[in-house]
UniProtKB/TrEMBL annotation:
Segments forming domain Aminotransferase class I/classII large: 32-354
Signal peptide: none
InterPro entries on file: Aminotransferase_I/II_large (IPR004839), HistidinolP_aminotransfase (IPR050106), PyrdxlP-dep_Trfase (IPR015424), PyrdxlP-dep_Trfase_major (IPR015421), PyrdxlP-dep_Trfase_small (IPR015422)
Superkingdom per UniProt: Bacteria
Similarity comment: Belongs to the class-II pyridoxal-phosphate-dependent aminotransferase family. Histidinol-phosphate aminotransferase subfamily.
Species of the source: Portibacter lacus
Entries under PANTHER family matching the protein: HISTIDINOL-PHOSPHATE AMINOTRANSFERASE, HISTIDINOL-PHOSPHATE AMINOTRANSFERASE 2
GO molecular function: pyridoxal phosphate binding; transaminase activity
UniProt name for this protein: Histidinol-phosphate aminotransferase
Keywords carried by this UniProt record: Aminotransferase, Pyridoxal phosphate, Transferase
Length: 358
C-alpha cells in the first residue's frame, strides 16, 4: 500500500455548501448555501467567453497581463504588485509553498474561512486558532499569539461565515502591532458588498504595507465562481515570490477574458450590490421579528444564531422541506448557526415568505 504522510492521514475532504447531485438544482426553489451571485455572471463576461471558445486549444497568458493591467488601474497599484490565480485556493497554495516550512507557526481566528486551516494542516504547520468574543475577532489575542516563528496571520474581513467586520482603526492598529517579518493576509472576498453597506469599510490594499497581502475574488460579486479566478495585491517583493511558486498556466483562458469583461460591467455590479444591501436589511428585520438573532453582516449572506445545534437543525430542515437550501455551520465550529446567502429577487421573496411560516 502506498504510504500516506502522517499529517495528511487524518485530513477530511472539503464539504461544499451544496450537493453535487445535479437533481438538486431542479428540486430546490432557492439555493442559498454557497454565497454565489444568483443573478448570474455578467452578460459581458458570458459574451467574452463565447467569443473566445474557439481559442481554448491555446495556452493562456500565464501571468494574465491584460487583466492585471486593468486591475492595476482599478486599484491604483503597479502591475508588479498584483498576481492572478485560479481562485483564492490557488493563492493560498502559493503562499504556504513560498513562506512556510513544516513546523512553522501560523495564526487565524475561530469560526472563519476553513481553507486557511486546511492548507495549514496539509503543510504540517503549527496552526493557532484564536477564540472569538461573541463571534467577533479577539484582535488583542491575535497580536499576542504572534511568536518568533510565526510566518502568517490570516484575517478574513468581512468574515465568512459570520459576516462581521474589522473596522478601519482596528485593522490598522492590529497590523501595526504585528512584526513586519510576518505576512498578514487580509481576505477581502466580500469587500465590494461591505463597501456598499458601509462606505467607510477599510480597503487593506490602500495601506500599501510590505507585509500585507490583500486577497480578492471574482467568485462573488462578479458571478464567476465556476471558472475559478482570484487575485492578490501586495508589495512587489511578495508578489514576485508568489510568481516563483505559482502553478503555470492559471487562471485558464476563459476565466481571464470573462474577468476582464466583468470588471467593465458597471450595470451588473450596481444591480447586484443594490439588491444585496436591500435584502440584508429586509432579512435582518424579519429575523428580529421572529426573535432569531442575526450577526451584523457586511457580506452577501446573513448568519442566524440559534439557541443550540438542535434549534439550528430544526430551522435548516424546515427550510429544506420547503425546497430552500441553506448552509449549516458545523464545519465552521458553529453548530448553532445557519448561513443564508442572498439570492436573486425571486429566491429572496420566496425565502422571506417561507421565513414567516417558521
Amino acid at each position: 500500500m502506498v504510504k500516506i504522510l502522517p499529517h495528511i492521514q487524518n485530513l477530511t475532504p472539503y464539504k461544499p455548501g451544496k450537493s453535487s447531485d445535479p437533481s438538486d438544482f431542479i428540486r430546490y426553489k432557492a439555493i442559498l448555501s454557497s454565497n454565489e451571485n444568483n443573478y448570474g455572471p455578467s452578460p459581458l463576461a458570458m459574451e467574452a467567453i463565447r467569443k473566445n471558445l474557439s481559442s481554448i486549444n491555446l495556452y493562456p497568458d500565464p501571468l494574465g497581463e491584460s487583466l492585471v493591467t486593468e486591475l492595476a488601474k482599478m486599484h491604483h497599484r503597479n502591475e508588479e504588485e498584483i498576481i492572478l490565480s485560479n481562485g483564492l485556493d490557488g493563492l493560498l497554495y502559493s503562499m504556504f509553498k513560498a513562506f512556510t516550512l513544516a513546523g512553522d507557526h501560523v495564526v487565524t481566528n475561530d469560526n472563519s474561512f476553513v481553507a486557511f486551516n486546511k492548507f495549514s494542516l496539509m503543510n504540517d504547520l503549527a496552526l493557532e486558532i484564536v477564540s472569538n468574543i461573541d463571534y467577533a475577532f479577539d484582535l488583542e489575542q491575535v497580536v499576542a499569539s504572534v511568536k518568533e516563528n510565526t510566518k502568517m496571520v490570516y484575517l478574513c474581513n468581512p468574515n465568512n461565515p459570520t459576516g462581521m467586520a474589522i473596522g478601519a482603526k482596528e485593522l490598522k492598529r492590529t497590523i501595526s502591532r504585528i512584526s513586519s517579518n510576518v505576512l498578514v493576509i487580509i481576505d477581502e472576498a466580500y469587500f465590494a458588498y461591505a463597501q456598499a453597506i458601509d462606505a467607510d469599510f477599510p480597503d487593506s490594499s490602500l495601506l500599501n504595507l510590505p507585509n500585507v497581502l490583500t486577497l480578492r475574488t471574482f467568485s462573488k460579486l462578479y458571478g464567476l465562481a465556476g471558472v475559478r479566478i482570484g487575485y492578490a495585491i501586495g508589495s512587489s517583493h511578495v508578489i514576485n515570490v508568489l510568481k516563483k511558486v505559482k502553478l503555470v498556466f492559471n487562471p485558464n483562458l476563459l476565466a481571464q477574458v470573462a474577468a476582464t469583461a466583468a470588471l467593465g460591467d458597471e450595470e451588473h455590479v450596481a444591480k447586484t450590490l443594490t439588491n444585496n444591501t436591500k435584502w440584508i436589511h429586509i432579512l435582518q428585520d424579519q429575523f428580529a421579528q421572529k426573535n432569531i438573532r442575526t450577526l451584523p453582516s457586511y457580506a452577501n449572506f446573513i448568519c442566524a444564531i440559534f439557541s443550540d445545534a438542535t434549534a439550528a437543525s430544526k430551522f435548516f430542515e424546515f427550510m429544506d422541506s420547503k425546497d430552500i437550501l441553506l448552509r449549516k455551520l458545523d464545519g465552521f465550529g458553529m453548530p448553532e448557526g445557519v448561513r443564508v446567502s442572498i439570492g436573486n429577487d425571486e429566491e429572496m421573496k420566496y425565502f422571506s415568505e417561507t421565513l414567516q411560516q417558521f
